[in-house]
Amino acid sequence: MCVISSESVIPVQPFRHNEYERFITTAFPYYGASFSTMVGFFVVTIFYLYNK
């Protein structure tokens, strides 16, 4: 019986808070959903307040 083992040591260092991109491109749908929810909330609020 033969045992083969191999190890690779890879240093893992988390990014600092200023090393990330300012806007992550894969999050654009979430940005759009957030802003459309805010706009919708304000439109419904204005409609409700001035409908009387």
* Largest sheet entry: none
Helix content: 40-55%
Distance between the termini: 86 Å
What percent of residues are in strands? under 5%
Order of helices and strands: H
Oligomer: single chain
Uncertain runs with pLDDT below 50, 5 residues or more? none
* Count of individual helical segments: 1
* Overall pLDDT level: 88
Structural class given helices, strands, pairing? mainly alpha
Principal-axis shape:
elongated
**Number of DSSP-assigned strands:** 0
Q: Using the CA coordinates, give the radius of gyration.
A: 25 Å
Q: Can you walk through the features of this model?
A:
This protein has a domain at 26-52. The mean pLDDT is 88. The chain is mostly helical and 52 residues long. It has one helix at 28-49. The protein starts with 27 loop residues before the first helix and ends with a helix.
Topology:
Blueprint: H1 28-49
